[in-house]
Amino acid sequence: MKERYDFKTIEPKWQARWAEQNLYTAPDGGGKPKYYCLEMFPYPSGKLHMGHVRNYSIGDVVARYKAMQGFNVLHPMGWDAFGLPAENAAIKYGAVHPAQWTYENIAAMREQLKQLGISYDWDREVATCHPGYYQWTQWLFLLLYKRGLAYKKKAAVNWCPSCATVLANEQVKDGGCERCKTAVEKRELEQWFLKITAYADRLLKDLDKLPGWPDKVKIMQDNWIGRSEGAEITFTIDGLEESMTVFTTRPDTLFGVTYMALAPEHPLVEKLIAGKPQAAAVRALALSVRGQSDLARTATETEKIGLFTGAYGINPVNGEKVPIMAANYVLMEYGTGAVMAVPAHDQRDFEFARKYDLPMRVVIQPAGAELNPDTMTEAYVGAGLMVNSGSFNGMPDSEGIAAVIRYLEEKGWGRGLVNYRLRDWLISRQRYWGAPIPIIYCEQCGIVPVPDADLPVMLPMDVAFTPTGRSPLEDQAGFVNTVCPACGGPARRETDTMDTFMCSSWYYYRYTSPRDTEQPWDPASVRYWLPVDQYIGGVEHAILHLLYSRFFTKVLCDAGLVANEEPFTNLLTQGMVLKDGSKMSKSKGNVVSPEDIVAAYGADTARLFILFAAPPERDLEWSDQGVEGCYRFLNRVWRLVAPLSDSLAGLPLPASGKMPGVNGEMRRMTHVVIKRVTEDVGNRFNFNTAVSAIMELLNAMYQYKEVPELDRDPGVLKEAVETLLVLLAPFAPHITEELWSLTGHGGSVHRMPWPLYDPEAIQEDEVTIVVQINGKVRERLLAPAGAKPDELQELALGQEAIKLLIAGKQVVKVISVPDKLVNIVVK
RNA sequence: GCCCGAGUGGCGGAAUGGUAGACGCAAAGGACUUAAAAUCCUUCGGGAGCAAUCCCGUGCCGGUUCGAGUCCGGCCUCGGGCACCA
What we know:
By secondary structure, this protein is α+β, with helices and mostly antiparallel strands.
């Protein structure tokens, strides 16, 4: 018997055997209930990092646990394989084609995943860059197009004039190009959008149908969608045949408008300033805000800048002329890109009005205080009665909102409206390495979708990656020039590709029938497997990826292609892996490579540590010594179990129920641990405390082995050993499998049913109760387990020591918690 | 700035509103060994005490409660997201 377990031999041996036995293939159907366990698929960057190991270790515990619980488990893996880094690599290293780079990375990472021993059904692997996959991404784009959910409009992109290329937000650092530092410009391009706003209300309301999602994620999505009720109000413009429509959530303050503000890049601005002296200055402001992110523009520390346009708006309700400003704090993307300003009752308007000395009028008066516009130090945003508001005077503002909307609708000046912060989804990318948008432009017929039969629109492989100022696809005459499917005349292909979020919004459907060449998925398979029962991934995806996937699912459900309204029933958002308090990154030089850890300690140790070091939702601090500790633990398991060899075979397990003495204590521990691990893994996902409990079981077994052999019941030891291996199997699958076979068991430990605890075995006769007086611990006493509160109180008050302590005082109240404590409140 | 989290020993963390610090790491002392490694045993929040034991202690300030690490209000610090990284 070896002192240490030989992971270098054991792990590859079992990985090969599991693959031969197809241990992880899941049939569509059968007698067992289904369970779809899914981890977010990785971008094939080249190497697995610790965040991946954490994600997939968590998923593997869930998948293996559910399989042992008797579920038919689908546990697939694939690759989110389109994206910027492959193209960057091609540009940087010249000779490497993004496809080659990507497929080589996939091969390397697949190998690493296999070395971790995760229970994937590799027959279902997908890669989004494979034509057999992106054919269906294109098909789904066309489905959206046919349903009126895809449209084109102008939108700005980041443009580096020096590199002559479009930049992703990530490639813009401090307003300059990441590579050459040149100031980034904005360029307006015709781009494709998906109408996710049409689903805003359902995406919001259906969050209530997701009790298995963390509240924080639901709150973030709720805020992201940003529903607000209010009114759209149209102001005419003095002396011009133009009008200006604003959105406000506070129509009750309409009489308090003292100026209006437009986003500087608003198309109306040009008409207002035409021929006026301030025209040049306003245009300069428009140019400067275009280069800024919304983030920078709306930050309160950013100075609010505004310029008078020279024009006046006319308030429909009182005919007042108010100046129209162009202001950097108004966003073109939100609402109508124009606001009515009520400085007395909106903080941003207040600050702006103070800075530019604009007038202020109080129209909501709180009870008890008299607001004075000259002495106010901040806007009053609370409740009150309407004043200075014509016929509405004296009305509470809460009623005023609806009343003003009714009035505006009667007069035709405006209407009640629900506005969302959510914007439509821009999917056009001026990039090569993505799924081509399957659209053809014909001089005669206009926009023509590629017929289903012509899919996929193949990405040409012979492409140069020298920046030319155009997307690489535009220089591919063979790709661009085509014939119109409708009239047969000459036509051009769309050269933009799709946002990779499109590819990742539906991959969990493809896993159900990944090799289907006739349709994106087999409807029967999807009906059987979906929705995903457990989805696991980084919290950084809490908004975009999860919202887009929910949107896709709702469209597919409306189209009758899937039966589920939501894609993911339960969601677990895992924290990051840190080293020395910050995220592992090459630039910080604090990266710990999973390869090195697996080579030095084996996959079981790496997985166990990462599950033990922190609860899954929290960030995890990497510790080399902590890894050592887990390795020691597995060796302790090995040294206890391996020498037993097949000495336990044939022994009967103890009968259920209570047992006296040391055997009873051992048996009690075994069953307490079954209970704790089952609750920690099954209900709470507290894998760290589950591992702790298994460690306690092992410690108890070592102590039990110290008991003279005559006093021990070998069946109790057998039960403890089997329990230890079965409970540990999802965490450390290789060593447990090896020990399972060493101790004379046939079959795989991963096919064992998850154990049930024996409630009688863990029952205690007596428990220690704490007696407190006025919340301070005064005495401990033994009480029958499960005693009722009344009985406990009687017992405590009957104690001589307690009687002495409370003598001469008045007992106000006695509180007792069964099996815990009695608190006596005295005066 | 806006939205969402998290702060507990030397460290990672544990604790249905009920004995704060389970489990693990590190450290110190000891056993075994010619020696080292490995392994095993003991101690391990701070303070007082010979001891039984007592007092203090969960980022800060306040509140609710017989009782708060946990609930509520207000701060501070750190982290995630902010729409073309995925």
